Amino acid sequence: MPRPGTDAVTVIGAGWAGLAAAIHLVRAGRSVRLLDAAPQAGGRARRITLQWEHPAEGVNPVELDNGQHLLLGAYTEVLQLLEVIGAMEEPRLQRRPMRLASSSGLLMERPGFASDRLGTAGSAIAGAVLAPLSPLLGLVRAQGLSAGSRWAMVRVFAQLRLAGWRPPPGVSTVAEWYRQARQPAELVERIWQPLVISALNTPADRACARTFLRVLRDSLGGPPGASDFVLPLRDLSDLFVDPALGWLRQHGAELMLRSDVRRIERGGTCRYRVVGSDRNTDNPLSIECRQVILATPPYASARLLEGVAEPSLVAELNRFQYLPITTAYLGWPHEALAPKDGFQEPIVPALMSLRESAAEHRFAQWFFDRGPQAHWRIAALVLSDSRAARELGDNQLGEALTRQVTDELALPAPMQLSLIHEKRATIACTPDRPRLLPDAAGPRLRGLALAGDYMYGDYPATLEGAVRSGRVAAEAVAGG
C-alpha cells in the first residue's frame, strides 16, 4: 500500500483525540498520517505493565491503564466510535446501571426498567413510561441520607431542569452554586463533593459551575442509560486504542510512533513542514503537508506553534493550568480473599466512594474493582487533585492508602501497591479557563486545527470530550 503523500492530513498526537480525528478523516475519504512521540498510542489513557511478584507464581506481568478512568452511558461518541472500528463485535466492556455507594453507608441507584426483563406487554409499556423517571426515583429512594437531603436533591434537580441546567446569574463556581441552591451540608459532603472532584478533578471552590451542571444534565438528568457505568473488561487500550490502530492500518493510514515532532514551519512545496526526529532510525523527520491537526496537550501545542501562530494563541494555550491525578493499583493474591475457616469471602465492591480527609491522611476518593488477572485480585484507588497526597512521598502515601482501604472497606492489606502519578493529568476546570475553537489558529494558519480534551469546552477534560474534539477538528479540515 503506497504511503500517504502531501495531500494527507498529518495528525500529531495519537491519544484519544488524535485517534478519533484520524478515524473520522479516513471515513470522510481523506488520507491520514498519524504521528506520536511515544512508543505506543493512547496518550494519558494507555496501557502500562506492572511486574508484580506473586508469592506462589513468581513475577507476572499485570496490564492496566496509565490511570483509572470511568466511562458513562452519556459518552455517546465514544460508544459510537467503538461501533465504527468493530470494537463491539466481541465483549470488551460491561454496562451497569448507576449505583453510587459510599463506605459510610450511602446508596443511590437507578431502578432498572428494561423491557426485556418485565415479561408482559403491559409491563414493557410501564417500563418505557417510568424509565425516564428512574434517576429521580433513585434520588427519592437513596439510602443513608436524611429525608430532608433526599427532597433537597429532588428540588434542586427540578430547579435545574426549569433553568435549562444553567447556573443562576453571578454564580461561577460549584461552591457558589451550593450556597445559592441552599444545599444541606450532608448533601455537599456525601454527594456533590465526590461527584465534583471525580467529574471535574477540580476543588469545588475553583470548579466551573456551568460545566458541572452540564455533566449532571447529560448523566443523571439524561435518558435512562446515560448514567450507566461503562467498564472495560480489561484495559482502555484493549477497548479502544488497539482496535482503532488496527482499523486505521486496515484503511491505509500511516502510523508513525516514536516520531518526535519539534516544530511546525511554514513554506516548502506545501503549506506546512513538520520537523523533528524519527526515534526508530535516529534520522531527521521532515514531512510536508497541506493540513495539520494538533492533537497534543496545550503546552505541547504552544511549543509547536511558537513563531508560527499569532502570539495571542500561543499565550492562550500557555494559560491553561493543570492538576495531578494519582492512581494506586492494589493487588491481593487470590487466596488472600478466599473464604477461610467458615468465614465469608471479603466483599470487594465494584465501585465505592471513599471518605476523603486530608487532615486524616485519607486521600483516595474512589475505589474500583479491576477483577482477577494473573493470579491477582486487583483494585484501583483514584486520588483526584493529588497535590497534598504527593507531599507525603510514595512510601508514606502507600501506607496511608492501605490504612484507608482496610479501615473503610474491611479488606486485608494488599500485598502489592503501585502508584501512578500524572503531574499534568488534566486541566483545571475553572470558570476562567481558556475556551478555544478548532480553527483558533485563524486564517493565518489555514488548514490547521486543534484537538484535545481541553478543546471541547462544554465538558471537563474527559475521554468523551477528547473524542468529540477529534471529530470536530476532522470536520474542520476534511473539506480543504
Describe this structure in words.
With 480 residues, the protein is α+β, with helices and mostly antiparallel strands. The chain has 3 domains: 9-45 and 235-320 and 431-478, 3-Layer(bba) Sandwich (FAD/NAD(P)-binding domain), CATH 3.50.50.60; 98-227, no CATH class; 322-427, Polyamine Oxidase, Chain A, domain 2. 32% of the residues lie in helices and 24% in strands. It has helices at 16-27, 76-84, 121-130, 134-140, 147-162, 174-180, 185-200, 209-218, 236-250, 298-305, 311-317, 387-390, 394-409, 463-478; strands spanning 9-12, 32-35, 47-54, 58-65, 71-72, 93-96, 99-101, 107-109, 229-232, 254-256, 259-266, 272-278, 283-289, 291-294, 322-333, 351-353, 366-373, 376-384, 416-427, 448-450. The strands form 6 sheets. The protein has a 5-stranded parallel beta sheet, with helices on one face. A 5-stranded antiparallel beta sheet has the order 16-17-18-15-19. The protein has a 3-stranded antiparallel beta sheet with strand order 5-9-6. The longest helix is centred in the first third of the chain and has 16 residues, at 147-162. The model is unreliable at 113-133 (pLDDT under 50).
